[in-house]
Amino acid sequence: MLVRLKISRYDPEHDEGPYYRSYELEAEPSDRLLDCLNRIRWEQDPTLAFRMSCGHGVCGSDGMRIDGICGLPCQKLVSAFDHEILIEPLPVFRVIKDLVVDLEPFFDKYRSVKPFLITQSSPPEKERIQSQEEQREFEDAIRCILCACCTASCPVNQREETADYAGPAALVRAFRYLFDSRDEGAVERLALLDRKEGAWGCQTLWKCTEVCPKEIPVTKEIGRIKRRLYETRKSGK
Amino acid sequence: MTFRHDIVVIGAGLAGLRAAVEAAAGADVAVVSKVMPTRSHSGAAQGGITAALGNEEEDHWEWHLFDTVKGSDYLGDQDAIEVMVRDAPRAIYELEHMGVPFSRTREGRIAQRNFGGHTRDFGKAPVKRACHAADHTGRVVLDTLYDECIRRNVRFYAEHSLLSLVFEKGRCAGVVTYDLATGAILLLRAKAVLLATGGCGKVYRTTSNGFATTGEVFDLAYQLAIPLQDMEFIQFHPTGLYPMGLLISEAARGEGGILRNSLDERFMERYAPTIKDLAARDVTSRAILTEIREGRGIGGKGYVHLDLTHLGEERIKEKLWEIASFAKIYLGIDPAVSPIPVAPTSHYVMGGIPTDSDGRVLADGKEAAVPGLYAAGECACVSVHGANRLGCNSLLDLLVFGRRSGEAMGEEVSRTEWIDLSFNPEQRAKEALGTFIGREGNESADIVRRSMQSLMMDYASVFRTQGGLEKGLEGIKELKGRFARTPVANKGRTFNYELMEAVELQHQLDLCEVILASAFHRRESRGAHFREDFPGRDDNSFLAHTLAFKGPDGPEMSYKPVRITRFQPQARVY
Is 0.80 surpassed by the pTM of this model? Predict the structure, then answer.
């Protein structure tokens, strides 16, 4: 089938700003959109820049905006499109070249939520015991691949005046540790989250949940953080 | 630009990060990666990590040792395997203590599942040995180790490609990298360097490996006169999603999945009467391809079915969520309702850069360690996997030998002084890159790469023959000639992937030659290396590791003995 793509291009060495360029190629209906991007780069225009690695939705490299919605081109088959496909970089982040954006601020926010297990007690000789029910509390959250589609889609992150909001991806990781029965860092975690740049930044707009390529109930998890904050405050008084 | 770190780790997968976590306790550690943090291909590992914890049923490290030796078709070094399997429970508990979210048993212990070739009582029946987090074990361990690196302030050079290893007076004294974002060339001085770059699946057309798994580090070592060990042993995973080749974990069969041919037969009963669908990967891949060759592929085509329909929706959702999502996204199939089309896919290289059990690279392939240079994980060959790796033994390998390398490097750098360089390595790297940019001709890197990948599938995949390997070697020579006439059109400095892919392809062509030549000279069948013209194992001539050295006219072979401590070679039947 004929696949037509309109791709946002920007080369900081030559261009004043981004512009669109159209491409066409013959592809199998079962080809991934990512395969088409690769073929454009290999066969038509070697200057096209985008990130990718695993090619099947596990590494999280290739987040971009496809027909206006953030997603992974490695998870989209071309058979799903019967029109010119609009390909743009993730919003929220600074464009470095074409579809490559600066994810340092994203990882900075990720690192800011203390994304590691905090414990005071020394571990047992073998594993810590954790029931299946306790593990189930956060099993959706550990599917996160840090593709940044959620944070890029969040209207709060998109508005300049609230751009300091940690964003859904960082909060999912915070949730993952806060609700892990083995973690003993709740006090410092809650202090980090109990701010307008933390969990209270979320305005429950569901965009993150809509776009998550791993079907994580992101908004609900942020909601559970808020409830935990609320209950902690209440019991504190 | 020059930066100094006591230790530079190349590769941010599990081996590299585990080493970094270990070494960061007492040294300044930097990690260089071609991709952003957490994008490395260890993250695509699904099924689990083996350790004889005995959480589900009786298990012993001696059984794990035997299974790994047998799985390796007796080519694995038994002393090294013993180091690995005895350390396995500690390695798992340590991950659990770091926070890895393992699936749990009803008692709240780490859950374990069946995996191919892992048995109780020296081969009598399958045993549950694979510790897992549903079917995304690699990803959650990668995330946890990255998080540990954050806690320990490890410095990351993300999206940097390795251009060269820097040597001074016989010591590895650093690396030269290329910063993809800016086109800058950096000299990273170090007292010790760890190569932990993973495999080379992308030299094949059909592979489970990611786009970054190109394998240039093998050739970088080879060009420095370091031999490559056992490179003929390339694992084809039995169940790649057809036709893409992406991984459908053995966990699917570990949870009870069954392979079926066009007659709906459970054909593995004929190839492995005792453990059937849980046979080792080399055996299962050959069985699938034999069924297809004999006309029992589904609809006469090049695949068979992996049937999970009897497991039920609930179990699939809980234990095999990722796999089910792949089948749905790429084929529109719900595995609770319909079987999944699968065929073997290039997955793992058992061979690599020879090391001792502390990751020290061996210059002669035998005992002479290269000062300051280490390797761990898939790019290294200890050798714990011999001629065929068992599923879930690779993450274990990464963790055990990653940690040991980190420890050994920490010790080495504490007693090593900085040395001055007598030359400018950045200038040399710049000149080498300049030759790519300045090339003229009308060949295309894309066509050369695709031809190489097809050639490797045709002549160096599951079934091999002398005639085919000869054709492969001739074909690679021709492709090298064509590649020399391939210009790099993109002259930009920002995210110039074309330039880096040209560098990679140059290394890959040499690497393919080593794989083909090693396979050509091994005139027997062992593990993943099956020669149709020599279908039997020949312990008299070939119970030995291949060492391929760079010679003036191509690879030159020599061999070294296998270290056998407990289990003498016997017939390998599952």
Answer: yes
